[in-house]
Every structure is written in C-alpha cells, then in structure tokens.
Amino acid sequence: MPNPLYDALFAPHAENTATFLATDDGTSVTYASFVKRAAQIAHVLVDCGVTPGDRVVAQAPKVVDTIALYAACVQTGAVYLPLNTAYTQAELNYFVQDATPTVIVCDASDEKSVKSLGFSAATVLTLAADGSGSLSLAANGQPGNFQTVERSNNDLAALLYTSGTTGRSKGAMMSHANLLSNAKVLVDHWHIQASDRLIHALPIFHTHGLFVALNTSLLVGSEVLLMQRFDLDTIITEIPRSTLMMGVPTFYTRLLSDVRLTPQLCDSFRLFISGSAPLLAETHTEFEQRTGHRILERYGMTETNMITSNPYTGDRVAGTVGFALPNEEVRIMHSGREVSPGEIGIIEVRGENVFQGYWKMPEKTKEELQDNGFFITGDLAKQDETGRITIVGRAKDLIISGGYNIYPKEIEDVLNDINGVLESAVIGVPHADFGESVVAVIVPEDEKLSDAALKSAVETQLATFKHPRRYIQIDSLPRNSMGKVQKNILREQYGAEA
After folding, report:
1. How many Å apart are CA 388 and CA 318, to the nearest integer?
2. What angle do CA 77, 81, 87 make, to 5 degrees?
3. Other C-beta atoms within 10 Å of 280: how many?
4. Are 449 and 442 in contact (CB under 8 A)?
5. What does the H/E/C string look like for 7-36?
6. 401, 435 Cβ separation under 8 angstroms
7. 404-335-368 Cα angle (round to 5)
C-alpha cells in the first residue's frame, strides 16, 4: 500500500547494509537495522492504541530510537510532533492539551513530571540517552517488520509548533507531500549523494535538524554523524572524514575561534550550509579566508521548510539568502502589489512545500495562507534584478538566537505578571555568537527590582533559550501617538552588541 514519505525515505533501505548513523560513542547503525528498529517501534505504537492521524509527541533526547520513532510514526500513519527538550512543564502542558496525543515519549528523567500533567488519554513512554527507557525495552521484543499503513500525499506526517506574537503557539500541519517535495529539491540543489557524510550537531526537534538534514540523507542513503550537541573538538576531528555540515551561524563563529580551522583541515570537505538565523557578512568573509570555502546560506520556515538558497555553483553572496528554490514561487509584496527590485516588502511563497494550515486555528490559517495558495511569511525582504533575495527584518519582531525562534510577547507576558513590574518590552540585539540576544526593558511600578528576582520568575516559566540576557529598567516606554510601544527606539538605545 502506498505511503509517500515511508516509500521514499525508509522502504528502499530495508536491505541496505551501509552505515546510516554513526554515534558519539563510536557505534554505528546500518540503514537495514534502522528500518527494522522503526518497525519494532511501530508495533509498540499500535499496541498503545495509535491509529492513522493520531499525534505522537516526542520530547526526547537525541538518540537513534528517537529518529526511529519518527520513522515509525510515518509507517503507522501517525502524526509526529517533536518538541524542544528545553520546554518547561507549563509549556509542555499547552502543547499536550492542544494536540491531544495518543502517545507521549519523553526523557526517562521527565516521566514523573509529564505524567503529572494529568492528560490521561495519552500513554507515556520514555527514552534515555543511554539507550534505556520503556519505549526501547518494549520495542526489543517486537517483530522487525511491520505492514506499512496506507497514506496519501495530503495526509499529515508531522505537526510542528511555531510561536506567534500573541504568545500562543501555532501547530503547522505538514503533509507527506510537503516534506518529501522539499527533500527532493534540496538533494538536487545541494548535490547530496550517498557518498556524503553529514556532520549533524543540530537538535532534531525542529525543521532544520530533522527534516532538512535527515530527510535529505535518508533520500539518498548518505552517512550521518549523529552528535548529541555541538562540540568543537569533535567537529574539528571529524571534518577531514566528512563532506557536509548543516549548521547555524553559532557553529561557524565557534569554528573560527579555533586556530586548527585551516584550508588543509577542510581540503576534502564539500559543502558548509548555514541557516535558521542570519549569518553575519563578516563571518561569511572570514570563513572563506580561513578555509577556502564559501558558506552556503539558505532561508526557510517551519511552515514551508526551505524556500530559498544560494546556489551550489555560482556566487554565494554574503548577507543574502539566494534565489527561490525550484518548484517554488516566491514574491515580495507590499500593500497588495508585488514590489519592484530593490523595494522592501513581505515574502510570500507558494508551492508543494507549503504547509496545510494551523492546527485548530482556521482563522489564523485563512489570515496567513491565502486562497491563491501563497503563504504570507511575515519576513521583510528585498530582491535584486536577478531574483536574489536579501532579508532585511522581521515583520513581527521575531528574535532568532542560536537558531531558535523567540517571540517577545511570550516573554513580556511572563515579565508583566511579576509583582512590581508595570510593563515591559522585549527586543533582540546583535550578538556575535548567537546572532541575536534577548534584552528585556522593564518599567517598575515603584522601586527598582533586582535582576535576581526577575530571573527567578522567568526561569520557572520559560525555556532557557528564551531567558533575557540583560534587564534594563527605565521610567517609561517610548510610544507613538497611537500608544504603540516604539521598539525601534529601544533597539537604537539599547541595541549595542551583547
């Protein structure tokens, strides 16, 4: 029976003895054994009551079985829902209540807190970094084959939550066709082959690390070095043995800090790719001077996967995100018209990669996914005469720090609930390592508050990557004649590099 994503990514590897995943501890997993493991986990999901279309939440460590869980969801027709492992219990509770999963897979150390959410409709299973956990143990006794469930191109394969400026997260519904079409385009555009070896130091709970990096590798059968996290010494060691790396700007600034990064070290490397946050032109230039390689910068979103890319052959221009990918229509709009070259507008995209809409949010879907098929990204950009795109800002004040999307309103809501805080405004300021750093500007009710008190309140409500790195207290926030806070003024005043 047809299942577009499984048939393309996993089924062809049932007898492939080549290495798929090489792990930090020196062990390796072949493609064939991975396919078998996914089938074992698929049996566990079905035993837990998972049926086609059911959601399976994964807030789990970066281990082989977590990736196999993704494959198992595809094979059973379930909808895979990965969540940032840094999310707090309060944040997790929202996702679980909204998505109503049948199964929740979490780190073994978090089992008690996840069960305390009180969502009795879901079975809670565990995974641990050492390979233990109830999911792994249950899978060990299952058959190594599973009858793949029939799915169509338009059936959902994944649900990815992306925050909104209102602070309420939106679940982007991704179909089999959305994910598969983008993987095929990227494999062709970036010349990814079975002979490649990918250095994978990204998280696997968002589009970049999961769908861009792993789906493309699976499509061609290349090897993946699966690193738990970015480790400078390990990457320096592995570069001569590898050909490809997908990273965020932070990876490249940290590599540049090491004297061992030389042209000789990168002599056999094929392609360095950067995304998820803007890459400073200075980083781009310095990396080329140090290695002889020009980083390929691209642009995408949770709702679309990749939209544009600098070319594989041809000029990779620092500060730009290249051209629209094949089979995608990209236009830059302002006030209902397509702007002329050099003018700034909002990026809109149409193609098979564009998501199906927001989970349980028909009004929000209608607002951003137009009847003509174009998705309004909310990103401000300009385009030159050749079609090359440069992103100049975020229409919704999105902060991107270390590759993570951070929405100020969510942090402001937490700050404003603190006793002694009258109001707040959160901005992003330049940061050489993370791209941007979070700064909170606060108006106290009476007396000035201590940073320690503010930090303490934030830490219990928000994931670490959302924590402000600086707290500034002032008498009043600048506003325009309509009463709107003028964050541009705050950025001018407090936007010195953090």
Report:
1. 11
2. 165
3. 17
4. yes
5. HHHCHHHCCCCCEEEEECCCCEEEHHHHHH
6. yes
7. 45
Strand ranges of the sheet holding 156-162, from the earlier edge strand across to the other edge: 123-127, 103-107, 55-59, 79-82, 156-162, 170-175
Residues above pLDDT 70, as percent of the chain: 97
Residue 401 burial (CB count, 10 A)? 23
Task: Provide the token pair at 36.
Answer: 């078998």
Report the alpha-carbon angle 62-301-68, nearest 5. Answer: 25
Q: 440-483 pLDDT, tens per residue?
A: 999 998 889 999 989 998 998 999 999 999 999 999 988 754 35
- Which token pair is 30? 């072949």
The whole-angstrom separation of Cα 100 and Cα 494 is 42
Strand 19-23 and strand 223-226: the pairing is: parallel
- Asked if residues 326 and 307 have their Cβ atoms less than 8 Å apart, the reply is no
3-state DSSP of the chain: CCCHHHHHHCHHHCCCCCEEEEECCCCEEEHHHHHHHHHHHHHHHHHCCCCCCCEEEEECCCCHHHHHHHHHHHHHCCEEEECCCCCCHHHHHHHHHHHCCCEEEEEHHHHHHHHCCCCCCCEEEEECCCCCCHHHHHHHCCCCCCCCCCCCCCCEEEEEEECCCCCCCEEEEEEHHHHHHHHHHHHHHCCCCCCCEEEECCCCCCHHHHHHHHHHHHHHCCEEEECCCCCHHHHHHHHHHCCEEEECHHHHHHHHCCCCCCCCCCCCCCEEEECCCCCCHHHHHHHHHHHCCCCEEEEEECCCEEEEECCCCCCCCCCCCEEECCCEEEEEEECCEECCCCCCEEEEEEECCCCCCECCCHHHHHHHECCCCCEEEEEEEEECCCCCEEEEEECCCCEEECCEEECHHHHHHHHHCCCCEEEEEEEEEEECCCEEEEEEEEEECCCCCCHHHHHHHHHCCCCHHHCCCEEEECCCCCECCCCCECHHHHHHHHCCCC
Q: Note the pLDDT tens digit of each residue in 202-241.
A: 999 989 999 999 999 999 999 999 999 999 999 999 999 9
Instruction: Tell the burial category of 79 from Cβ atoms under 10 Å away from its Cβ (0-12, 13-18, 19+).
Output: buried
Rg for the chain, CA atoms, rounded: 23
Q: What's the CA gap between 41 and 374, in Å, rounded?
A: 37
Give the type of residue at 423: E
